[in-house]
Design goal:
Mean pLDDT: 97
Strand order of the largest sheet: 1-8-5-4-2-3
CATH class of the largest domain: Mainly Alpha
Number of helices: 15
Distance between the termini: 38 Å
Radius of gyration: 20 Å
Largest sheet: 6 strands, parallel
Order of helices and strands: EHEHHEHEHHEEEEHHHHHHHHH
Bound molecules: 5,6-dihydroxy-NADP, zinc ion
CATH topology of the largest domain: Dehydroquinate synthase-like, alpha domain
Strand content: 5-15%
Length: about 375
Amino acid sequence: MLNFTYNNPTKILFGNNQLVNLSYEIKKYSDRVLLAYGGGTVKKTGLYDRIISNLKKESIFFTELSGIQPNPRITSVREGIRLCRDNKIGFILAAGGGSIIDCCKAISAGVNYDGDPWDFLTKHPPVKNPLPIGTILTLAATGSENNGYAVISNDETEDKLSMGADSLRPKFSICDPELTFTVNRWHTAAGAADIMSHIFEQYFNIVEGADVPDRIMEAILKVAIKYAPIAVEQPDNYEARANLMWASSLSLCGLTASGKGGGDWAAHAIEHELSAVFDVTHGIGLAILFPNWMKYCLSDETLPRFISYANNVWNISTTEKYETANLAIEKTREFFNSIGIPSTLKEIGVKEDRLEEMAAKAVRYGPIGKFKLLNKEDVLKIYRMSY
Ligand code: NZQ
Ligand code: ZN
């Protein structure tokens, strides 16, 4: 087990009807709020009305940023910063999935920054005096509700890049599983795949002896494998939605990387290029890439990890070690297919003639990954295996 510091101040209010605590939590920070949401789901589901009546009852001033897209754009961040400055906003409330929350984190960092917010994605200046943010989660997937990361896209440059700071961790997140009953099959499956992918990024790691995070991660994978198919078939199954939601919040909050020295994150970098160019749904891209990334990384050195994965997650054990590993990888792909995710990039509209360019961009800052270091040629091979 490696040394680590784990400090996660986000308060999680989990369960049905936790929305009643919204204004109480906000007022600890400010009574002037930017309410941010996406393409209208919050209005269709009635969540918007519930938020508004909660804010009005406590005389909290609010202004709105709507229309934040999946794979949130830097243009929404700029608009949000303008709204905060013009309205002397003191608190940002994100109502939605990871895209809304990420956009709000970038706004939060940018309000008191004297420059263009895209700098946070490219030059990584320190985040100073961010506005506090809170979230109302409506989709179990990214873990953004419980971490300090944000991923923002730029259509002009066809880039999708990450930023992060501990000070961007939400002050609170309201995680009511009932708010995810309306998520469709595609996004439910994509969310589950994203949760599992966050674990893969941390689990496939050569640091041995950190049993606490390893066993927690295996449990989270098993939870996703158990409940994702139920949530896809029965969208209003509370236990399925609740387990996926808590799995989302625990998968990328620092807990499971503690003692393991962080994660690999190559597959995420490879996927972000797909989203940047083809606006791919993040979890779908990951689910297609990951079985191929696993195959590509399998070697004598990495074999023991795959054996643990096969034995402890899938209950697969044969007398031949490589056979065991390959069966677990195949099982991973079959699982993703079983919840409605295709197997190839071609099926989701990725064009082959852009693969080389995306591979070059994935390694724009140098080779990626830790479990296995990947350069441009490696990334291109993984894209081709996934095509
Ligand atoms: O736009 P609205 O109307 O809200 O609809 C959304 C959107 O179309 C819909 N949706 C959300 N909640 C719903 C719902 N539909 C019905 N009922 C509900 N309750 O779902 C669609 C996708 O939403 P989005 O927020 O894009 O999904 P997700 O939570 O998967 O977020 C994906 C973004 O997060 C980034 C991804 O790269 C991607 O940009 N990530 C952020 C991370 C982080 N901050 O830690 C880590 C992740 O690895 C990831 O990179
Ligand atoms: Zn992810």
